[in-house]
Specification:
Elements: E1 10-13, H1 20-38, E2 43-48, H2 54-67, E3 71-77, H3 80-89, E4 94-98, E5 107-114, H4 122-134, E6 150-152, H5 156-167, E7 176-180, H6 189-196, E8 200-204, H7 223-232, E9 236-240, E10 247-251, E11 256-257, H8 259-272, E12 280-284, H9 289-297, E13 301-305, H10 309-319, E14 323-325, E15 331-333, H11 342-356, H12 360-363, E16 372-378, H13 381-388, H14 391-404, E17 409-414, E18 420-426, H15 430-448
Parallel strand pairs: 2-3, 2-4, 3-6, 7-8, 7-9, 12-13
Antiparallel strand pairs: 1-5, 4-5, 9-10, 10-11, 14-15, 16-18, 17-18
Amino acid sequence: MTRLFGTDGVRGIANIELTPDLVYKIGFASANVLADVNAHRPVFVVGRDTRISGTMLESALVAGLTSAGADVYLAGIIPTPGVAYLTRKNGFDAGVVISASHNSFEHNGIKLFSSDGYKLSDEIEDQIEKLIRSCDATTDLPSGEDIGHSKVLENASREYEDYLLEHMRVDLSGMKIAIDCANGASFYIAPEIFRELGAEVVAVGVDPNGININLACGSTDLSLLAKIVREEGCDLGLAFDGDADRLLAVDNKGNIIDGDVIMAIIAKDMKDADKLVKNTLVVTVMSNLGLMKMAAENDINIVCTQVGDRYVLEEMLRSGYVLGGEQSGHLILLEHATTGDGILSALRLLQALRNSGQDLSQARKIMDIFPQILVNVQIANADKAKALEDLEIKESISCIADELGDKGRIFVRASGTESIIRVMIEGENFEDIKQKADLVYQQLHDKYGVGK
């Protein structure tokens, strides 16, 4: 049976896969499990992004939580890291974010944080999932004064904004910055923060209507931001995803700056200031070989984990590292936050640029990017494991790996949040790796692809 919780909570198409009934059960089970763990009446804080399904699923979640006797504070529309911060600041037992992050509007998700602001452990998620699958959500219900209640958490966004300004205050006077908020959770707070720090802000993706989140904007599509930067003569552009836990950027010429380059710039700045603990950066196996080369040239150690910011965080906590992240733009600055935070990462990047006296077009040259192909194959969740174990496909992958040798690599994995298998190939020659990627893509699509 497929695990309900993926690498980033529970995801699905709202009202089809992620139904109000399922979300009610997630709320009910979460409250019961955390009540047992903490041995008292649990208190949750709930935030969401701008999706049209957000209020529907929020109502179902609150019903599940309160029917199990938990109290709930509603933070409204707020970035995911804002919920993580509010959870630990206010001593809540858990935080819940209703968001599908970078996915399109018809998707939604439920992501839970523990009382210390970290994503729930696999063990706690398994306990919640076990209770959900038992479907025993109608017995031993509290009544009377034992029923939970919900109320609005006043000034939730302002609390989070004040925290960011206190911990990463950068003088942005004289800078003109374009910001793309993906019509998502940062649509109001992000422009406010950068203006308060002195920047002239050109904001796009700040008109959410419930169905335009991540639509041709934000960190999943930088073409609009690049166009705005060039046309408006901005110093750089910053792009967040739907729940603002990711950051990607463009320089003043519209060149895309991915998470690897951003990490390289910040890591070098932290090392120069003797703040990069153990001189180590934690990345995933998807990071570009150019980042590994840059690290070696600057005496920075690289530790690789499997794909997923939760695995990056686990390694950071286990070994005491303070900086890690993913090429996709999830950066974890453990000195300041317990999860990826797009706005915080943007401020830290700007601080590094200020410290170096460089603009982003100069700073990006810190690493050479190896040609890399990333293709996505639409495959039903039920078929992903079978496709990855297919002997013919495994043989093709093995042969390509042998051909690339130590001058490249191939990595094929199932997405933890979407019905997709991702094929990444890296090497010295673009046309060569493109042909190899097309071969694997075609095999996967022909045998297991949706609509084959």
